[in-house]
From TrEMBL:
Keywords: Coiled coil, DNA recombination, Meiosis, Nucleus
Coiled coil: 81-145
Pfam families: LZ3wCH, WHD_TBPIP
Homologous-pairing protein 2 winged helix domain residues: 9-68
UniProt cross-references to PANTHER family, sorted A to Z: HOMOLOGOUS-PAIRING PROTEIN 2 HOMOLOG (PTHR15938:SF0), TBP-1 INTERACTING PROTEIN (PTHR15938)
UniProt-recorded name of the protein: Homologous-pairing protein 2 homolog
A GO BP entry: meiotic joint molecule formation
Record domain Leucine zipper with capping helix: where: 149-205
Family: Belongs to the HOP2 family.
The organism of origin for this protein: Anoplopoma fimbria
GO cellular component: condensed nuclear chromosome; DNA recombinase auxiliary factor complex
Amino acid sequence: MSKKDNGATLILAYLNEKNRPYSAQDVFCNLQKQHGFGKTAVVKAVELLALEGKIKEKMYGKQKIYFADQSQFKNVNDTDLKAMDSQISQLSAEVQSLTQSCRQLDAKLKELNSQLTTEEMMSEIQELKKESSGYRARLEKIKSATNHVTPEEKEKVYKDRDVYVKEWKKRKRLASDMMDSILEGYPKSKKQFLDEVGVETDEDCKVVVPSI
């Protein structure tokens, strides 16, 4: 494209190729990004082309519309139009089918990419075998141990625990009742009394009586 024709040659080729009406603004928007045309240059180019008779110009309301000179194209009869429509329908169906196939292939590709490779799977299998071997060794060690706790021993431990917890609660309640009786005639606070007699409560030791 030379600076002299101000893009007119390229714009003429564009209008002939598309063979549809465009305003100067449409031509500018469609070609500006690719070719860097300025709007003023596009307006001058289409006006020049129309003046030279290379394209046609029509007023559409307050806007000028430019389109290719139809005399340069051969006449198309109804048979040709029907053949073209049939071809368009066929190609559209093919495009739709290919688009669907591409989507399916893309989905399959994403699925395959998310899976482990053969090398990664072999490495993972070796790690799992090693982990499984460790668990088997631990299981055999547990089975061969001679210090298992029998159900009877386990039950006795739980019963003893219940007895100790009940006694703990009983003694705590008795101690609390005794302190309450003493504090009725004690001139200082409960905390001062506990400090003086050297008594540590469960709360001081941060322990809680277990539930039964």
